[in-house]
Design a protein that fits this description.
Blueprint: E1 2-6, H1 8-14, H2 24-29, E2 36-43, E3 46-53, H3 59-65, E4 69-70, E5 74-80, H4 83-90, E6 99-100
Parallel strand pairs: 1-2, 1-6
Antiparallel strand pairs: 2-3, 3-5, 4-5
């Protein structure tokens, strides 16, 4: 499992638009040994999460636990709160072997 995040300052610094990050969860998932990926985008007081899985792990169930939706291989959610509060809540729901980015 791998996760990373993009903060408001990253968008400002690079001039990137949030829509340009839509394919990043799939890019992280292509790394060797990564079965589940999580990309978090922190903007305007909320954290949007995108989950992807390439094996049998059900990321849709994780997203639904956080008020989002999707299916077994791709899902998303929005968290109103801090990145830290979300990580405390979501990491226990994901596979335990974790690679942290950022």
């Amino acid at each position: 499992m791998a996760y990373t995040w993009i903060e408001e300052a990253d968008f400002t610094e690079t001039g990137a638009h949030p829509d340009e990050t839509e394919t990043l969860p799939d890019a992280v998932r292509t790394l060797g040994g990564i079965d589940v990926s999580l990309l978090l985008r922190v903007r305007n007081g909320e954290v949007r999460g995108n989950l992807r899985a390439k094996t049998g792990f059900d990321v849709g169930a994780v997203a639904r636990e956080l008020g989002g939706g999707g299916h077994k291989a791709a899902a998303g959610f929005t968290h109103l709160g801090t990145l830290e509060s979300l990580l405390e809540r979501i990491l226990p729901l994901l596979p335990s072997k974790i690679v942290k980015g950022n």
